[in-house]
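Quick one: structure for this chain?
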Amino acid sequence: MKSAWNDAEAKKLGNDLLKLRVYTSRLLGQDPDLVLHGGGNTSVKIVEKNIFGEDEEILYVKGSGWDLATIEEPGFAPVKIEPLKKLAQLDELSDMEMVRNCRMAMTNPSAPNPSVEAILHGLIPYVFVDHTHADAVVVITNTPDGEERIKEIYGDRIMIIPYVMPGFILAKKIREMTEGLDWDSIDGMILLNHGVFTFHDDPKIAYEKMIDIVTKAEEYLEEQGAKELAGEERGELDLMTFTKLRKANSKVWGSPILARLDDAGPTVAYSNLPDVEEISNIGNLAPEHVIRIKRTPVVLGKDHEADIAAFVEDYKAYFHEFNRGETLLNPAPCWAVWPGIGTVSFGPNVKTIRITEDVSQHTTKAIVQAETLSSYKPLSKADFFDMEYWSLEQAKLKKAGSAKEMQGKIAIVSGSMTGIGKACVERLVANGAVVAALDINPGITDRFPQAEVLGIECDVTDPAQLASAIEKTVTSFGGIDMLVLNAGIFPKSAKIADMDDTLWRKSMEVNVNSHQKLLQLAIPYLEQGFDPAVVIIASKNVLAPGPGASAYSVAKAGLTQLGRVAALELGDKNIRVNMIHPNAVYDTAIWTDEVLNARAKHYGLTVEEYKTNNVLHVEVTSKDVADLAVSMLGKTFAKITGAQVPIDGGNERII
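Got it. Here's what it folds into:
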């Protein structure tokens, strides 16, 4: 582990202690081997004048909900230190009382709740305090002789703290252990099975003490041969089995969830270990991880549904063994070990499955390293339960908001780079869905900044590319629930007598055949989906064609007929198929300013008059079409299939 401190960058911050605190916090947070997804906490002590002109020592400590990797100044909660020191002297203090009293001691009531370690940070008599859950250190402590190994590595310069629950209990324990201590005699504290504290009045020294302590642990692991597993190739993945796994676990969650496959070489190697079931069911690397991924994964065998059911029963037994009046959390597994394939992360949204994947990767690596040292021995079941069902975590359940309508659902949208397709992607994401956005334009891969969108470069007329897009969608998200058939071209106007064969075939290939193939490939996955639905973007030309547009009009009519037949065939599979007939949607790629001006002039209208030349005198936009498409995919059209709905502001020919 290398120090990332940059003297030039730090110099720019001058003597602003809070800015320096932000700087070093980010240095710690950017390394996942130190902290993961909101883990760890940091603080700085600053003397400020209160409203009466009196000097007060204020602890700026990381606030709840902030991540060290991205924290900013508002992410630190300002707390008066004197009340914190008095709280530390109490014999007992409940979690809720601790939170309430820490908030009462804040100088800014709009700041976030202080870290649960605020009292402990206040006790440590240095300006800068850093706390991480460094993997290498925790791995060593998660062995039967971990404490002896820590003494061997660090000698007397590190104080060893036995594991106790974070918060007041930990603060009280350290207060008792440090009474009369010469703090300059130690470089830091290692909390067994938990993490590391370093401290100093100089932010660089406090930070680099952390780097030095963790580096020594990493070097020790390397000397002992405790390295990451060499990569192995994944076995053959059955996509349908994967999507059925997602469905089986969704049923336990009580709502659609996502499933993401991790088939990286070391992960596959872990899944292939002969004792993988035994070592995977011992427990997590660090106590706070239990909140993210539970204590253990489900290890899959031949019958995944039965495996999940068995996991649920085991989890309920674990809950009832230690329950003291807590509310049972969701008993479904958060991740799975799939021998020969890798691991699978489950969750209601992309953020959750990515966190789960990160934490599970660190867990599997740690288990292998600890097994190399001697054997893996994390916290007891009771300790994990206390953390998982901590009153502060239980309180968060009561504050959880309601999920968006399409949370956990998976869509594919073809022709997503611009216009209606792009708008459909954005509206689906806004409603909680994840989307595989297909387009022939290579720019699709980074077209959307949202993590919920998987941009896939795909020529929809190529069956092999369509099959690959399906595979990427399923392995990234777990299945398919919704399909928007939108990709299309508008051929150059040509009368039938003058029609070029190539133009005709191209229109049929893109506007009809590609949709038939994508629908065909998607149907088996839609059958395993949740409230599965298909929306076809057809055209006003189906109902009111114009001269010179036969290649387009016939193709869109064929696409509509495909949708009608699909509605009949797929109804008994509970798959809904509905069609939209847009007209005069001018914010798409084919309608340039030049074309709009020319068409408006042809009819003797202004551009604005031309755009609103319909019964309602309104402009129809891509967003309007997308809103209708998302409504068709959602609850509004839950009992409608085979419908054809125009969205055109009212077209006299169609009416």
